[in-house]
């Protein structure tokens, strides 16, 4: 079993920065890709960024150049550094982990709220 706990959300002004963290506990060696998703009020949950075991990354177009995902294996933590935040980045941000092997097992955190407003 794997547990994901997000932290770092809060209220920030447009143009500001926040860093989210996702602490991973349990059988971490079964995890290969960790993703960040977000869900804005009234919208479907959307994928934001991914980091794999080899530290390669992918981003959705709307946050490229502003957000950076990284993985610290020594601390079993994945980060999402968010710069130049916009009001449309307001959402609950969720950490999501994919398990190695067949079966498509995934894990979700409970989310952390990011509100971008003046």
Can you tell me about this structure?
The protein is mainly beta and about 120 residues long. Helix content is about 0%, strand content about 55%. Strands 2, 4, 5, 6, 9, 10 and 11 form a seven-stranded mixed sheet that branches. A hairpin with a 6-residue loop joins β9 and β10. The protein starts with a strand and ends with a strand.
What's the short version?
It contains no helices and eleven strands.
Task: Give the key terms.
four-stranded antiparallel beta sheet; mainly beta; seven-stranded mixed beta sheet; 118 residues
Order of helices and strands: EEEEEEEEEEE
Strand content: over 45%
Number of helices: 0
Globular, elongated, flat, extended or rod-shaped: what is the shape?
globular
Helix-strand makeup class: mainly beta
Largest sheet: 7 strands, mixed
What is the first-to-last residue Cα distance?
A: 40 Å
Topology:
Elements: E1 2-7, E2 10-12, E3 18-26, E4 31-39, E5 46-52, E6 57-59, E7 67-72, E8 77-82, E9 91-99, E10 106-108, E11 112-116
Parallel strand pairs: 2-11
Antiparallel strand pairs: 1-3, 3-8, 4-5, 4-9, 5-6, 7-8, 9-10, 9-11
